[in-house]
Amino acid sequence: MTLSTAPPAIEPAELSWHHGVPESKQFGDGYFSRNKGLEGFRSTFIEHNNLPARFSSVPEAGSFVVAEAGFGTGLNFLATWQAWQTWGPSHAATLHFVASERFPLTPQDLKKALLVWPELGELAEELVASYPPLVRGTHRIVLAGGRVRLTLFFGDMHDAWNTLHFKADAWVLNGFEPAIAPETWQKTTTSETRQHSKPGTPEAPAPSVAVIGAGIAGCLLANNLARRGYAVTLIDSADEVGSAASGNLQGAMYVKLGVEFNHQTELALSALTFSQRYYDTYRDQLWHPTGLLQLAWSDSEQDRQRRFIERNQYPEDVLRPVTRQEAEALAGVGLESGGLWFPGSGWLEPGKLCKSLALHPCIHKVFGFSMEQMAISDGKWRLSGADSETPDIHADQVVICAGHLSPQLLPGSGTFRFKAIRGQVTHLPEPIIDSPQAVICGARYFNPTHDSQGQRLAVIGATFDLHSDEPDPTTESHRENIRELSAMVPQMLPTEMATGDLPEQLTGRVGFRCTTHDYQPVAGPFFDAEGQEMEGLYLLTGLGSKGLTYAPLLAEFVADQLTGQPSALPVSLARRLATGRMHQTKVAPS
Which UniProt keywords apply (predicted)? Predict the structure, then answer.
């Protein structure tokens, strides 16, 4: 069947309804039987596979993986989730459900279809609230506070099994009848299911992980692992979490999607939609989904956005083009141009979020620890501090999340293709600016004002200083931020500020981003200069200026690898993050 939509959108299921039960117009088959759909699944799958006993025996920090060929209305997933609630272990453990769907239901149709099953109402409501936009590829949905993880592939089932990395404990293969959709079922071969099936009893997980670096990436990873039942030691040389670039008062949560829908754009889109779902837990507390406007602020950006709109089709709940008049209404301020409107984006309080994430009781925090040496000792990693009186830290696995300081911590010799980029933000007090209602991005980002440090401040930024290591805010960097902002939104700042007359009370903050030679993050097991994997050592860094957007998904991805659970990313995107490419002398892709 040929595609009728431009990337990355995917065609939704076309439905007809009979007494509240959906039927696929593409295949002429109903999704379930109103009389026996739920009970039939419980009998043929849950009881037949002895899931009550198998669920209850999952060990601490362990997982159970179910795979389904065809997600449909999500009924089978919800029934499995309900069974996990009933028979799953009382300790921390994770149910993974991996499914593909060529013609996904719209959120509206999904909600309507699941009304048939009121006993699943609370679970269905959470699923619908977290349902991803209808774009092709892999979506990771975290539910039940992390006890349930749904990996949902929108696209051809054969493509899903070729690109997803997982091993299933049980399979659901009772979708549409083979006689009705033979071309689909022929692709669900025995060899494919065998390839993704566990050979026997899953190995006991290694429960001890040290995370070095208590910025947004490290705190997200530590919290992710702690929720899965792992014992985590969070280490930083500073005296508290979020002390470096992640300690800013505000941060805009956005990405710049490429004109061509390639793997780089797909990774950015996956990170954007995942982070929007992740941060929703903190809505109106630390996360403020005001919407975000990417201005067509220059001739070149207008041309880029024109080509972007011509070549791509995105659901409107992801983004849509807006005129200048629409942009002004959405942002609540006068503007010079329209742009792209991202309704699910906004801004975050990253410093406060880091502190909240690190409060999990399974996270042991070690601050003021300046690491001197890292080595394997008796099968464990031993981390030694510069202070000889400080006890060594031992862990089965170590993840370096130390931003631009990461290369200094890696064992062995060699040169790495990381670079530190200084970024200074400027705090503008409300009386001297016209605050927008939404985040505005272009040459700079401009966040709405918010109560902070005893006054209402807006954060603008940030500079992109490749050749400066100045740790303190400078007047020149403030002047640069305001000059660029004034050129982008001239109506929103006093004229005298644009010409360099800065108010005395201006404050700001400096952080150093860590980026890579190809401006793509690094996440996964560490490979040395000879291409050999150093067992138990991982990297999560190089997130650049989009760390708030990329960090939730990449923390999920690295946590999957550490725990041996299904991967949140397909193989094609995981390759882009490979750590081996960071050596000055290129090694084979990992």
Answer: Cytoplasm, FAD, Flavoprotein, Methyltransferase, Multifunctional enzyme, Oxidoreductase, S-adenosyl-L-methionine, Transferase, tRNA processing
